[in-house]
Automatic annotation (TrEMBL):
Membrane topology: Multi-pass membrane protein
Keyword set includes Disulfide bond: yes
SMART domains in the record: 7TM_GPCR_Srsx (SM01381)
Name of the protein in question: Trace amine-associated receptor 4
């Protein structure tokens, strides 16, 4: 109880105090921490007394209120986990549109759903007593012994398990599998650890009038070999995976047989510039939705050296060696891009790992209680009280793990925690 209370309280104070942490993702974490904090203050202490004393001293009305709060807060916490998984899905699998899709308004809708559905479900179910229809004899037996036990009949034992566990659990597991697959695919395409080291070492370049070896990132674009004059245009083409090499403005990509097509943006760059050898070579493995074209002329001393780079805002496809004359600005741009690639890959792996731990802990904590509740209602309540209590507290333990999983692993939280402990805020 103390661990749940303190851990989530620190999360609440940190996010509420530091304006730098006011982001859509952190608002979800803040709301979830509030839910778990309320659970530790309102529900757990009375559940502890019930478990230790094997008796309920607080009356029938408060028993119902306690049961409602128990169902509501636990389900709300689970819904938050589900929506955080959705947030991580867009952050990893669709980073180009993450900022436009996961907005404060959308997070507000997530929070409204996370709180309103559990409130109506919990209070409506318990006070209408729909959950005990057909189980009146067992309820009367527990009333005689002075217990406060949440009982579900056969129908609501299955429905409650589906609403509070199996539905959000299935969504979370499905999202995690997809995120893990995408993160693993991206890591493989950029060479995992060895390629990232290669990027880090090769991209440390200095400005020079000589030809230097750099790294060209091949993404969803083709670069013209000899650009004719004027204008920048976009064309939407459909093609899939395959190899491509240097080519002129209208050269098509040669694809292997049996490859599914995806829609991407293919660019043609035209501008009145001196003729220069522009090349693009590599393996087109994954297609993204868009790219941002920029052109950077060389210094006045070498007017024939022209570079066109595409700033990748989504998926990195492959990296291959390439030699061109460099200006200081070009070298700095490539160094910055290489660093961003390494950081993006690291963030993807971390997001997949964090979500995997969260899903694993969620299943470990809630699966025994949910399965027991469903089976117990079907087999006329055969679970011993000690076993049932153990499963309840294992489910509560998930609320203590949430701040550790989602927040303690982030650098910003460690800094906030350090400031809290040093009494600087």
């Amino acid at each position: 109880i103390v661990m749940t209370m303190l851990g989530n309280l620190v999360v609440i104070i940190s996010i509420a105090h530091f304006k730098q942490l006011h982001s859509p993702t952190n608002f979800l974490i803040l709301s979830m921490a509030t839910t778990d904090f309320l659970l530790s203050c309102v529900v757990m202490p009375f559940s502890m007394i019930r478990s230790i004393e094997s008796c309920w001293y607080f009356g029938d009305l408060f028993c119902k209120v306690h049961s409602c709060c128990d169902i509501m807060l636990c389900t709300t916490s689970i819904f938050h986990l589900c929506f955080i998984s959705v947030d991580r899905y867009y952050a990893v699998c669709d980073p180009l549109h993450y900022v436009t899709k996961i907005t404060i308004s959308l997070v507000g809708v997530f929070l409204l759903i996370s709180w309103s559905i559990p409130i109506f479900f919990a209070f409506g179910l318990v006070f209408s007593e729909l959950n005990i229809i057909g189980a009146e004899d067992f309820v009367a037996a527990t009333d005689c012994t002075g217990l406060c036990v949440l009982i579900f009949n056969k129908l609501w034992g299955v429905l409650a398990s589906f609403i509070a566990f199996f539905l959000p659990g299935t969504i979370m597991v499905g999202i995690y599998i997809h995120i893990f697959t995408v993160a693993r695919k991206h890591a493989r395409q950029i060479g995992t650890g060895s390629m990232m080291k290669h990027i880090g070492s090769e991209s440390k370049m200095k400005a020079s009038t000589k030809t230097e070896t750099i790294l060209t990132v091949i993404s969803e674009y083709l670069v013209n070999q000899s650009p004719p004059p004027h204008s920048l245009t976009w064309k939407r083409r459909k093609y899939g995976r395959g190899k491509f090499s240097e080519g002129d403005e209208r050269k098509d990509v040669k694809l292997g047989a049996g490859i599914s097509e995806q829609s991407v943006l293919w660019s043609r760059f035209r501008r009145n510039l001196p003729s220069a050898p522009w090349r693009a070579a590599g393996s087109l493995e994954t297609l993204s939705a868009a790219c941002i074209p920029t052109w950077t002329p060389s210094s006045a001393s070498s007017p024939s050296s022209i570079s066109v780079s595409f700033l990748l805002t989504a998926t990195v496809l492959s990296v291959s060696p390439y030699s061109i004359p460099l200006s200081s600005r070009q070298a700095q741009q490539i160094n910055n891009l290489s660093k961003s690639l390494a950081g993006a890959a690291k963030r993807e792996r971390k997001a997949a790992k964090t979500l995997g731990i969260a899903v694993g802990v969620y299943l470990l904590c809630w699966l025994p209680f949910t399965v027991d509740t469903m089976i117990d209602s079907l087999l006329n309540f055969i679970t011993p009280p000690l076993v049932f209590d153990t499963f309840i507290w294992l489910a509560y333990f998930n609320s203590a793990c949430n701040p550790i999983i989602y927040v303690f692993s982030y650098r910003w939280f460690r800094k906030a925690l350090k400031l809290l402990l040093s009494r600087e805020i």
